[in-house]
Design a protein that fits this description.
Length: about 100
């Protein structure tokens, strides 16, 4: 199941921590399974490793990042929420939702 896939994805990233393909695989897997915090962190690593932010990747970055931002906001962590939304606007500048928050 998905736990095995995540385990294998993390192993692949551990073996090739700067490989955009392995990072993208793990980020997509985390996002698909609803683990938005880890997904957002891996998407950031993906971008830093030179991974291409095509439309699908931008959508995933925005989705996971705004989920993280909103969760932090709901917990009263305003600096954390602001940090998440700023990261989304840096990586996906056209994302109006993150800019609004």
């Amino acid at each position: 199941g998905f736990r095995e896939a995540i385990r294998l994805g993390r192993r692949a990233v551990n073996l090739a921590p700067e490989n955009p393909e392995t990072l993208r695989f793990l980020a997509e897997l985390y996002g698909t399974t609803g683990f938005y915090g880890p997904a957002f962190g891996i998407w950031q690593r993906y971008a830093e490793a030179g991974g291409a932010l095509d439309d699908a990747a931008k959508g995933e970055v925005a989705s996971s990042g705004t989920q993280v931002g909103y969760a932090r906001y709901g917990q009263g962590d305003l600096p954390g929420a602001l940090s998440a939304y700023r990261t989304v606007t840096r990586l996906v500048p056209e994302n109006v939702r993150a800019q609004r928050w």
